[in-house]
Structure formats: structure tokens, C-alpha cells
Amino acid sequence: MTTSEPDYRRRRCGVAGPARRGRRFALLAGLLLLAGAPLCAAAVLKVATLATEGSVEMKRLREAAGAIDERTQGRVQFKFYPGGVMGDDQAVLRKIRLGQLQGAVLTAGGLTQVYSDIQLYNLPLEFSDLAAVDRARAALDPLLLAGLEEHGFVAFGIAEVGFAYAMSKAPVFSVAEAQTQKVWVPEGDLGAARALQSFGISPIPLSIADVLSGLQTGLINGVAVPPVGAIALQWHTQLQNVLDLPLLYVYGLMVISTRPFERLSDPDQAVVREELAASVRDVNARNRADHESAVAALKSLGLTWNEPSPEQVAEWRGYARRASAQLIEDGFVSADLYQALRAAVGGD
Amino acid sequence: MTTHSSIYRRLGPIVFGALLGTVSGCASLLGSLTSSMADDLGTAILDNPDVETVRDGAPAYLILIDGLLARSPHNSDLLRQAATLNSAYATAFVDAPERSRMLQGKALQLAERAACEGLHDACTLRTRPFAEFESWLTRRKARDVPLLYDLGSSWASWIQANSDDYAAIAELARVKALMTRIIELDEGYENGGAHLYMGVFETILPPALGGRPEVARAHFERAVALSGGRQLMTKVMFAEQYARLVFDRELHDRLLHEVLAADPAQPGLTLINTVAQRRARTLLESADDYF
């Protein structure tokens, strides 16, 4: 298949939904068939995600897909490709362009090539805490989602992963100390590499699978990662210190390409929006709880949370502001959106 | 939205691996009662194709073993058997999260006590620094494997029951280290069960997040080889955890058809094999939707 058409199949549509509700409806559907009514075509939207089968995200997505199937009487169906089987964000976006997929769950970083303003919340050290995030998101989520839609993707909400923190073997308080560390950056992630370089850090690229052994052998001795990631990947066993300063807000989005989406009828589009938005909201809330549980766990596991002095915080923020200014100057982030962000979090 | 969070909730299928522990635990427990009736009962459980009977009968053993423990609270063998029995019963038959956490918590405590009584310097395994835990493991010998294995499997089940809690997930590294050491010491123990656990651990995360499906595949294949293909649950988990993760339908269906074609009646494995065949049927039925 080489177009971005959803995969239309003559299956179940118009029969499956009613049939579930009882024999009476099945009989009615049967009569319609006998009367020569054509089977309507079901749109099958293929969606890739890194979430693995059995995870809460996948369960929630499958629930939403089930509800959509039911409410559209089988006209809109989903097929999921979990566990990253369709490749990384870049590969998935390519497949969406080729029409092999219609949607995906992607990181904000992955979507920047589509709509670079989507990385707005990703700018370093913009938020002092999650309350600031909530203020910004209440004001700006609708603008970012609308912007993404203008760039060809319908998004159903933003789901947070949490703040990334600097974690290391040795204690780090200041930018100067961070610059002496051997800091990991995900292989091929130019955005992350650029962000670290803006703090004067020369990062060491490794695949995620190699980070644990890199920490064990001393090839690297520092990472910036959300606490849920540090624990899920068991990196915490090799780290002793956390800089108590939220570096970066990490989040993802579920999107469907606008073209196949707009081929659905208006009522069906509304159903898809409603169900998927509810599902993303649930995952977002769940992830907030996970983030807080992971922060608490890292504290109880004996990692030392080092609080930088006000001067050190100011220094970190100074570097971050200059990095953000550069991104705005280079046209990666709109100046007016950035101003709106600063106003929403109550900053300068 | 999917990156790291919640991924450990995927430990689910390992439940069946733990059922292995149930039956061997029962057999040892009953064996310890040193009567021919106990031997007969042990065989009756292990070779019982009626899962429901075992489910309904198991609570009686939970109570029985609590009573025996009250009399011999420092008996390492008895503690170990109590741990595996509680853990496997909860994993296999208890759906209510609260009750599952309670039983798995009890099972892990029993397994810790068993290790503390039966192994050198093993009373603070969960809390000592990770590097010290690893160094303690390197000093373990082949004779320690049964206690290490039961501790590891009870621990894995406890993490599974508490997978909302990152403090619990954080302990998985210790279980992996335990299973890795068991593979070095006696990889064939419990039909290659340590390989089975490692196979599952390596498929919890997708490759993009650091999972290593090919390492998992090697563990699953080794577990199949070590059990001589008699332990059918190994193939079921190979299909569910690995073949589904990498979208290899041919492998998935082949493994599950092999499970269904096999004779479940194997000495000591009839019960687990019966459960495996049920699971294989369910997986095949949902394959068209999944792939």
C-alpha cells in the first residue's frame, strides 16, 4: 500500500456492533443484507507504539479501540503494532508518510520534524515543579495540538512521562562539575546532544541497551533521565547521586495522520476524538503517579538528592535561557509561544 | 507517552513459571512428612490434569504449612516450601490485587527467612547496597541453587504483584542477578527455569527502550532444550513473550501448535502442561487480532 488511505476492509461493519447487542439486531442486519444493502467498508487505522502488550498504555488503547469499534458499529477499527516493532520515531513517521501506518504514539522529540513548536515544553529548565507544568499545559496544550493538526497530525492530547534529572556516580551541583562528567546521550539524538552541548557538556553517544554496561565499566558516569526510566532500566543500581533540579519535561503524544482521519465521517471522527482523548488523559494521570512513585523510590533506595545553591540554580538557568534563545533565534520555537509559556509559568 | 512508565506491568505471563514452584513445593512439603500417603498426594498434585481441583485444594495446604511453621520457625526447607506454595498459589489463582499483594508479600518474607536460615550471610539481601549483593552472589555454590531459585521466583512474583510501585520494580535488578548466577551454577535446575525468567525479563522492554529480544530468544531456546521439550509452558511463554514482541507469527503459531500436539501427561509436569495447553489455545484464538 503506498497511499495514506486507511485500510478499508469489508469486514464486520454494520453487523458486528449490533450483533453484540442481541439477536434482534442481528436479525435486522441479516434482513438488510438480504435486501441487498452493501456491506459498508471499515476503515482500519494502523497505529505503532513503543508500549508493550500487557502494559497499562496498551490496555487503555485497546479499550478505547474497542469502544470506538462498538460506537461506530465497526466502521472505525484499529490495528496496533506494539513494542516498537515498527521501529523508532523516525521509521514510524516514514511509514505514516508512505501510508503503511496511519498513526502512532510518539515522543515530542520525534514529532519536532513535523512541527517544531511541539518541543516547547521540552526546553531545558523551564519548569521549577509539576505545578508550573500544569499551569503551562492548561494554557498552551490546545494551541500546540491545533498547531500539530495544521501540520498534518490529529493529536488526542499530551501524556507526560515526567521530569528528567541528572543522575551520576559522583555528586554534581554546578554546571562546571557536570562538564567534568562522562555524560550519556542517546545515539542519533541530535536534539539531546545539542541541548547537552549548550551546557558545555560533550556527551558520549550510546544506545539505550548499552547504558547499563557503560555505567558498570565507567565508559559513562552520568545520565539525564526521568526517574521512571532510571528504575525501569535498572540504571539506579549504578548511580549514587541525583541533582535535585528538574532539567527537562518529557512527554509523548498519540497522533493520527490528518488525511486518513478526515476520510472518516464527522460523527465517527467525534467518537474517535472523544475515546482517544479520554485514553490519553488516563495515561497522563497514571504517568504522573508513576513519576512521583519513582522519585520517592529513588529517595528510599539511598540515592543522594543534592540540592544546588540558589547561585548554582541561577547558573544552570542562565545556560538554559541562552540555549532557548538560540532555538528561538534559529526558528525552532516560535517567540510568541515561548513568551506565552514564560507568562503561564509565572516567569520573567 | 509510553516510554518508560508501566512497562513492568508486563511481567504477567511469568505466573505460569511460578506454578512450577507450586508443584515442586507441594511435593517437597509432603515428602517432608515422610509417609507413603504424602508421596501419593504429591504425585496426585503434580500429575493432576484437573487445575480446578488443585486450585480448590491448595488453601488447605497453605493452612497446613502455616501450622507446621509455627512449630519449626527456623526450618529453612519448610520456609522455602511455604514461600513457593504461597507465591505460586497467589500468582496462579488470586486475581484480586489487594489479596495478591498480601500473599506475595508473605511469600517473599518466607523466602527471605529461608535464605537467612539456610545460606551464609543472607539476612539483609534486599537492603544491602547492590554492589555488595552482587559480590555475595559470586560466593554462592551449586548447593545453594534451590534456595536461590525459590527466593528469586518468589521475589519476581512479589514485584509482579506490586508493579505499580517503583520501589518494587527497582528490586528487579537483584532478581536478574540471582537468576544469572543460578544459570552459572546449575542452569538445568527446575527444567531451566532460570533461563525462562531471564527470557521474560529481556522482553519486558521493547528494543528501542533497551530490551534485548535476541538475548531473550536464546534464553527461551535454552530453557526448551533443558526441559527436553517436556515442559510445555516454556514454549507458551516463548511464543507469548518473544514471538509476539517481534511479530513473528510463524514462530508463534508453530510453538503453540507443538504445545497442543504434545502429550501433557509427563511425570511431574502434567498439571503445568495442562495449564500451558489452555493458554496456548487462548493465544492462538487471539492471534488473528494481534498479528
Poorly predicted spans of chain A: 10-39
Structural class of chain B: mainly alpha
Mean pLDDT of chain B: 84
**Main beta sheet of chain B: strand number and arrangement?**
none
- Through-space gap between termini of chain B: 23 Å
What is the overall shape of chain A? globular
Structural class estimated from helices and strands of chain A: alpha/beta
Give the number of DSSP strands of chain B. 0
Reported for the largest beta sheet of chain A, the result is: 9 strands, mixed
DSSP helical segment count of chain A: 14
**Largest interface between protein chains, with number of residues from each side:** A-B, 59 and 38 residues
Instruction: Extract low-pLDDT stretches of chain B.
Output: 1-39
Shape of chain B: globular
Q: Kindly report the oligomeric state of this protein.
A: heterodimer
Indicate the radius of gyration of chain B in whole angstroms.
18 Å
H/E series of chain A: EHHEHEHEHHEHEHEHEHEEHHEHH
β-strand percent of chain B reads under 5%
Number of strands of chain A: 11
Précis, in short:
The complex is a heterodimer of chains A (348) and B (291). Chain A is built from 14 helices and 11 strands.
Structural features, described:
Chain A has 348 residues and is an alpha/beta fold. Chain A is built from 14 helices and eleven strands. Chain A has helices spanning 16-21, 23-34, 56-71, 89-97, 108-111, 130-150, 175-179, 190-197, 208-217, 227-232, 258-262, 266-300, 310-329, 335-345; strands at 7-9, 42-48, 76-81, 103-107, 153-168, 184-186, 204-206, 222-225, 241-243, 248-257, 304-306. In chain A, the strands form two sheets. In chain A, strands 1, 2, 3, 4, 5, 8, 9, 10 and 11 form a nine-stranded mixed beta sheet that branches. Chain A has a two-stranded parallel ribbon with strand order 6-7. In chain A, helix 3 links the parallel strand 2 (42-48) and strand 3 (76-81). Chain B is mainly alpha-helical. Helices cover 73% and strands 0% of the residues of chain B. Chain B has 15 helices and no strands. Chain B has helices spanning 14-32, 36-46, 51-71, 76-93, 97-118, 130-138, 145-161, 166-169, 172-186, 189-202, 213-226, 232-245, 249-261, 270-285, 287-290. The longest helix of chain B is centred in the middle third of the chain and has 22 residues, at 97-118. The radius of gyration of chain B is 18 Å and the shape is globular. Chain B starts with 13 loop residues before the first helix and ends with a helix. Residues 1-39 of chain B have low confidence and may be disordered. The interface between A and B is large, with 59 and 38 residues.
